[in-house]
Amino acid sequence: MKEALPLVWEALQVKVDRMIEQLGDKSPHVAKEDGIYDDMRHDWWTSGFWPGILWIMHEMTGKDHYKKAAWSWDEKFEKKMIEANNYHHDVGFQFLPTAIIKYKLTGDQDGKRRGLFAANFLTGRFNLAGQFLRAWNQEKIGWSIVDSSMNLSLLFWAAQESADPRFEHVGKAHADTVVEHFIREDGSVNHILSFDPRSGELIESLGGQGAGPHSSWSRGQAWALHGMANTYRYTGDTKYLHAARRVAHYFLACLPEDHVAHWDFRADESLEGLPRDTSAATCAASGLLELADALPPVEGALYRRAAERILLSLTQNYATWDQPEHEAILRGGTGNLPAGQNIDVSLIYGDYYYVEAIAKLLGWKNRIF
Ligand code: GLY
């Protein structure tokens, strides 16, 4: 991958510049065969990823047109916060790549305020009896999901920024639940766990976006891997580092020859012909680079090499470099196969974690998650 990096970086800048023109004010989530990104509500969980790409490009290049295109997103999200909305556990995915990175890069006080507001909102979703962050809204009162591993960075940032350790207490308590209940002994993970919301007792694992309650949804693996690596970076507690490594070893052992994950590692005895999920691949690659950075170089090299193999395959086999009209960076993502939604498509979070991982390989030291 190292040899390919300068060309990839050049191609990425051309691509993202074109996306700015193509996307306009859209809040992209999925692009199907026609290569045209949709336009989702601002409270939809993926709304932070496109601005996140822009902020990384701004920081890496110093160019102002990326900042200009990224600037107003956190204000739009705040407006939605004070109307009827469906914000939930994923506010980290929305405010970390917008309000908080904006504050970190520019000192913008509105960004800081919005970030702290989102952290308070997420903290308010903590179930004390069960020690978990509640997923979603409506009737799903006792549900928690592995995806929230990635939202914990919002709480750790808020603890540092406000010097108020409550945010860290909640973040660590949820992370402990991830280690104890979500990550299985073999390093695979549960997607959704249902708890009794009053007693806090664990009831069962639910299938969620994987093939079944005991399967191994690859994006869930990636959320846990990257999320636990981030949690180690913030807390320094090696229990999270070990958890991230356990998930990483399982993830890497499941990869097919081209290093790009199938949508669920236990969907079938033979994974032959099953859809891939390039978003699981990119998120895992970025998490593997986080792990590599957390370890002495000799130990970390395993994870760095694995991330590079994944990224090279994505670059060579799944990218849209030769299709300027295509609004996404990568193809081959799977959104929600059990629901029959968004199979073999482009996903904005797949694009985001690709850019994040490439930036890390190029030496980007700041972090969004
Ligand atoms: N967080 C929802 C998903 O990964 O599809």
Automatic annotation (TrEMBL):
Keywords: Hydrolase. GO terms for molecular function: hydrolase activity. Transmembrane segments: none annotated. SUPFAM superfamilies: Six-hairpin glycosidases. The keyword ATP-binding does not apply. PANTHER family: HYDROLASE, PUTATIVE (AFU_ORTHOLOGUE AFUA_7G05090)-RELATED. Belongs to the glycosyl hydrolase 88 family. This is Glycosyl hydrolase. It comes from Paenibacillus germinis.
